[in-house]
Amino acid sequence: MTSLLLTRRTLLRATGAAATLAAAGCMVPSVTSAPPKLKLIGEATLPHRMKFKGTTVGGLSGIDYDTARNLWIALSDDRSEIDPARFYTFDLQLSPGQLQVTLKDVHTLRQSNGQPFPGRRQGGDVPDPEAVRWLPNGNVLWTSEGDGAIKLSPWIREARADGSHVREFELPPMFRFGGTAGTGPRNNVTFEGLALTPDARGAWVAMENALEQDGGMPTVESGGGACRFTLFDVASGRATRQIAYQPDPIPARPIPPGSFADNGVSEVLMDGEHHMLVLERAFMMGRGTSLRVYRIDVREGSDTLAVASLSGTNVRMPRKTLIADFAQLGLSRLDNTEGMCWGPRLANGARTLVFVSDDNFNPLQVTQFAACEYLG
């Protein structure tokens, strides 16, 4: 979550020296460029702190589209601080050069006891919603990043369309806070991305940055440690496979030198059975935001599920193909884009990719929807 003039809400993530790939021992993945695969169709923004059915709209960190019902969903990452944790449904009208977003409803996410989630002041099961996908049964799958400060681990949960709790997936111990010093997730860089396989039997969950034992945070010189992308069996809620993904180094030095800058994975999306789109989002103080979409083949990655630490191991990572740099799309501005999903097909049969940015409820940022024709 990046502010254009302020640092991320948790600056602790920027501390510590980043490990180089050579030190980590991982096989460096190749990066190739292809002709741009995205063509901007249109964009739209929502008013800052827009009021809707008794809630404040903002912090939209996840987005998805149900083709059968022609229904869109957007997940707010409000940690029950402004209003209880929630998601919105909406309509999106798409025409050449134009995008129109109309909110339809809002649903409060609920704990297993039926109560709304508490905020940090109340304590307990505090959420940090980040990614969401529709399931074929009409339910939603969503992730929380957890809270390292209070040792609340991230989670993957299923909820009904009204927000009521169904179940929670079983996490490998590596993703839990409070373990051995120097291991486990860093605060606020855990389950940022979520992608369903085409048959919806599997769910890939993407870390924003590396586990502590896997390497450091990205710097201008290095992409830091590899992120773990974990495949879960949706029926059982258990992890079945995992691959490592190498983020880019931070694209440019911040201004002034030494001020805040970062890079990480903000969303993932399946492009067929074996390929995945990965959205990397960087922020550099004094420069702004960088957004890039890569395409990988998940079959190319070694299975790291049983690998305790990626440092010093010969882990094979998938090759990255750059399919779009948002700086070349013609958007009015680049902001903290965290949501990505497939939209309806165009009249010419092409698929659409739709993105949404998280404004952090910050008046200096914007809730921006952007629709693109996918030329892949």
Number of helices: 1
Runs in which pLDDT lies below 50 for 5 or more consecutive residues are 1-25
Helix-strand pattern: HEEEEEEEEEEEEEEEEEEEEEEE
Mean pLDDT: 92
* CATH topology descriptor: Tachylectin-2, Chain A
Structural class: mainly beta
Largest sheet, strands/sense/barrel: 5 strands, mixed
Care to count the β-strands? Answer: 23
Q: Give the C-alpha Rg.
A: 19 Å
What distance lies between the first and last C-alpha atoms, to the nearest angstrom? Answer: 29 Å
Q: What share of the residues does DSSP label as strand, in percent? A: 35-45%
Structurally, the number of domains stands at 1
Domain Phytase-like: 55-361
Organism: Ramlibacter albus
Protein name: Esterase-like activity of phytase family protein
Pfam families: Phytase-like
Short description:
The chain is an all-beta fold and 376 residues long. The chain has a single domain (11-374), classed as Tachylectin-2, Chain A, CATH 2.115.10. The chain is built from one helix and 23 strands.
How is this structure best described in words?
This is Esterase-like activity of phytase family protein. It comes from Ramlibacter albus. The protein has 376 residues and is mostly beta strands. It has one domain (11-374): Tachylectin-2, Chain A (5 Propeller). Helices cover 1% and strands 41% of the residues. The protein is built from 1 helix and 23 strands. It has one helix at 21-24; strands at 31-33, 38-46, 51-52, 55-56, 60-66, 71-76, 86-95, 98-108, 129-134, 140-144, 155-159, 165-168, 191-196, 202-207, 227-233, 238-245, 261-270, 275-284, 288-297, 320-325, 337-342, 351-357, 367-374. Strands 1-20-19-18-17 form a 5-stranded mixed sheet, with no helix packed on it. The longest helix is centred in the N-terminal third of the chain and has 4 residues, at 21-24.
